[in-house]
Amino acid sequence: MAVLAAAQLLDELMGRHRNTNPNEKIKKPNWEDPEYCKYYMVKFCPHDLFVNTRADLGACPKVHDDEVKELFEKAEASYKKAQYVEEFLRFCRHMISDVERKIQKGKQRLELMNSKPEGPPMTQAQTEKNMEQVKLLSEKISALVREAEEAGTCGNVEQAQGLMKLCDRLKEEKEQLLKQQENSHWSMTAELAAAQEKQMEVCPVCGAFLIVGDAQQRIDDHLSGKQHVGYFKLRQAYEEMNEAREKEQQEKERRRREERDRERSIRGGGLGSDRRDRERMERDRERDRERDKDRDKDKDKEKEKDRDRHRSSRDERSGRHEERDRDRERDRERERDRDKDRERERDKERERDRDKDRDRERDRKHRRERRNSHERPRRRSRERH
């Protein structure tokens, strides 16, 4: 970029042919050569408008020559010349649409900044209590993870899965507490920012943020800045060239009608021919009106399509979020049902174990009673002897 800038400076000081030999023939400039900047020949080069600003486009890789620009302006109207103008307008339209999107985003940002936070901020005691709960939950989660790992190594897969599900629930509670604390923090910072900062607005030309009711000197500095002046010049040139092109098209249509009228008048006279000419003129006018209506309808359709696209994209996003929330809620319900079924199974197993223990205890009692019944007569016989 620096080399190109230095070369352009040398061209301005010493001429384009500074490196040619004295005996070498100098080629005459031609505006159709690809080395010359099309935008500079049409009106101005946008690369020169935003030098050393945030919207800097860098140095133009093409050559800017005033002599070639004069040749382009003096050249007769042609398809290539109209194509150059169309490319310049397309580039301007692209830059204007980019800055319009920037302005829209800036307005949305200001609306978010000016919107009130949801809910009152948390007190210091509530914050400390919240942090203690988060700490306890972290300890429980780490303990459950260790137990699940031990159960997995021992082969108790169901127990490990149950412990991991419980761990997931505790993690959700922890995330909710952290989110609540974060929302409280942002609400406090938003209130402080609203109290300290001044009211802002977005510049409708370049999209920069301005302070409402700021000093006149700063407002004048902004209005005379490169970025604001560049976008203003870009918008003004685009509007002027569009108006000139529309007037030129209307002028062409008027000339065509005049030529048609002359040809009809030359071909022959008579009442019948005049009537036919009038009818033809009326038909031509009707066609022109229909064309204008069709153009307006096409423009309205394009605008309506853009609105539908924005609406459909918003609806799709909201629908996706709702579906995700529903799926998560269904998964949670399923997990709850599974946990309940597992608890029932465990209760049944405990009942079975209790029944087995009771049966074992009964068997032991019966055995003891039998032993005692056999040992009594033996003791009696021993006592007699």
UniProtKB/TrEMBL annotation:
One GO CC term on file: U1 snRNP
Biased amino acid composition, Basic residues: 363-385
GO molecular function: mRNA binding
Swiss-Prot/TrEMBL GO biological process terms: mRNA splice site recognition
Any single Pfam family the record assigns to this protein: LUC7
Source species, domain of life: Eukaryota
Region (Disordered): 242-385
Biased composition (Basic and acidic residues): 242-266, 273-362
Signal peptide: none
Family according to the record: Belongs to the Luc7 family.
Official protein name in the record: Luc7-like protein 3
